[in-house]
Design brief:
- The protein contains 8 helices and no strands.
- It is elongated, with a radius of gyration of 17 Å.
- 71% of the residues lie in helices and 0% in strands.
- By secondary structure, it is mainly α.
- The model is unreliable at 27-36 (pLDDT under 50).
- The protein has a single domain, classed as Alpha Horseshoe (Serine Threonine Protein Phosphatase 5, Tetratricopeptide repeat), CATH 1.25.40.10.
Length: 163
């Protein structure tokens, strides 16, 4: 195995670990409660988001939760929490184009949020768009504060630019 492949594998592993360690927009633990299907039209956007996450994280029907998050986005296309979770779920299910569209909006809504730039870069990278991934990683570097993650991103940029 060549050193280039070893470096790519190690950087991929580090990326996954670092992604796991980055804080989420909502760092409070949610109490999971699953309710039967009810009329959600009278719920606030915050209540819909909480209910959606309760359904998805509590082992309920994920599409029911996704539908609630999409309703929040219809009401407020810049709702950061709903966009974040839709992007996150898209990445977890390999729907990288959808993740890209969510994280692109998030980086416009909160342009100084390093996590959103990092996730956008990851989505581009997983979608085989190295050029845009490098651009997003460079944006991450403008706002990132963790020296270890910053160095990992610098190494990743170098690797992407060599390919």
């Amino acid at each position: 195995m060549s050193w280039k492949k070893v470096i790519i594998i190690i950087s991929a592993i580090l990326t996954v670990v670092l992604l796991y360690l980055l804080p989420t927009p909502n760092t409070q633990f949610r109490e999971v409660t699953i309710e039967s299907k009810t009329d959600n039209s009278n719920l606030s956007m915050e209540e819909k988001t909480k209910k959606a996450l309760d359904i998805i994280q509590g082992g309920g029907a994920p599409m029911e939760g996704i539908t609630l998050l999409l309703e929040v986005i219809q009401e407020d296309p810049n709702n950061a929490e709903a966009l974040y979770y839709l992007g996150d779920f898209s990445m977890k299910t390999g729907q990288f184009k959808k993740a890209i569209s969510r994280f692109e909006v998030l980086t416009k809504v909160q342009p100084k949020n390093d996590r959103f730039w990092y996730l956008l870069a990851q989505s581009y990278e997983m979608n085989k768009n190295s050029e845009k991934a490098v651009i997003a990683y460079n944006e991450f570097l403008k706002y990132g504060t963790d020296d270890i993650i910053i160095q990992t991103v610098i190494d990743k940029i170098k690797t992407l630019q060599q390919n």
